[in-house]
Design goal:
AKR; Aldo/keto reductase; alpha/beta; oxidoreductase; single chain; NADP_OxRdtase_dom; eight-stranded parallel beta barrel; two-stranded antiparallel ribbon
């Protein structure tokens, strides 16, 4: 596995991240022994980024990872998230505000048995909290040494852009990454989030690269809608042509879209992870990528599509100008 830099930092991160949403035996997830096999296999393949959250498995994911990482914590880039409620009866036990960040961070550090988080994520946008407060609270967490880098997950592009601009103007810790769903059939990030990430130099951690198993052939076709079915059938056809599994093709397509993109792969067993890791070096033919692109019937919509169609407004010489 190869490595890239996290955003505009010097931190080296593997091209595929490991998701631990399903970890946490006490939360009804992957048993600890199997989670260890998954983590060991990922590490042996060169992977070094682990993604979790305070709410995964009701907290069991973080607790199990704390045990699994004992003695080798520093070899991994450990990321966790806050915003999800810690107590549904307390209005201040959720959200992006400073109080919840402080209490959530302490909870995660305790469960993970570590004194720092490599990448601390805002889990989801909280429209009630001013982005200025979130940026300053994240900066304070970095200054305390408990957090090294920060990112925004499941947040509108304009909010992340605002956070990055505020941080740059005021000398605060800027986001290094964004996290959002991305797969053959769900391509919304191409409209705003991916261009924004490119503009600010942010790593894109993409979750759901297999569309909840639909692109891996793990869901019956009759449970899929028309667009999902068409995409899944195209993925399966390409897989036969290139001698790979549908899951490997779906992952390869996601990785081929942009160098900023790092798919987050989750597995409920070491066998599933072995299959996915077997396709890390898979490079799809351009023709196959084009067919997969067309399978989702995706369009950028306004204003991107309109701007592309209106290119003649710049004159006939516009097509001969190379961008910087």
């Amino acid at each position: 596995m190869r490595y890239r830099l996290l955003g505009r930092t010097g931190l080296r991160v593997s091209e595929v991240f490991l998701g631990s949403l399903g970890f946490g035996e006490e939360g009804g997830g992957v048993p600890l022994t199997e989670a260890k096999r998954i983590l060991d296999m990922y590490s042996d393949a060169g992977g070094n980024v682990i993604d979790t959250a305070i709410n995964y498995g009701g907290g069991a994911s973080e607790s199990d990872l704390g045990e699994l990482l004992s003695g080798r914590r520093d070899r991994f880039v450990l990321g966790t998230k806050y915003a999800w409620t810690r107590d549904g009866t307390d209005p201040n036990a959720a959200g992006n505000h400073r109080k919840n960040l402080v209490r959530s961070l302490e909870t995660s550090l305790r469960r993970l048995r570590t004194d720092y988080i490599d990448l601390y994520w805002v889990h989801i946008w909280d429209p009630l909290t001013p982005v200025e407060e979130t940026v300053r609270a994240l900066n304070d967490a970095v200054r305390s040494g408990k957090v090294l880098h920060v990112g925004f997950s499941d947040t509108p592009a304009w909010v992340v852009s605002q956070a990055a601009t505020l941080a740059a103007q005021r000398g605060l810790e800027a986001p290094a990454a964004v996290q959002a769903p991305y797969n053959v059939v769900q391509r919304d990030i191409e409209r705003e989030i991916l261009p924004m990430a490119e503009s600010h130099g942010l790593t894109v951690a993409s979750w759901g690269p297999l569309a909840k198993g639909a692109m891996a052939g793990r869901r019956a076709l009759e449970t899929l809608n028309a667009t999902e079915r068409q995409a899944a059938e195209t993925v399966a056809t390409v897989a036969k042509e290139v001698g790979a599994t549908p899951a490997q093709v779906a992952l390869a397509w996601t990785r081929s879209r942009h160098r900023l993109i790092h798919p987050i792969v989750g597995a409920s067993s070491s066998d599933q992870l072995r299959e996915l890791l077997g396709g890390v070096d898979l490079v799809l033919p351009d023709e196959a990528v084009a067919r997969l692109d067309a399978a989702s019937d995706f369009t950028l919509g306004f204003p991107s599509s309109f701007i592309t169609q209106a290119a003649p407004v710049y004159g006939e010489s516009f097509s001969r100008v190379d961008p910087s």
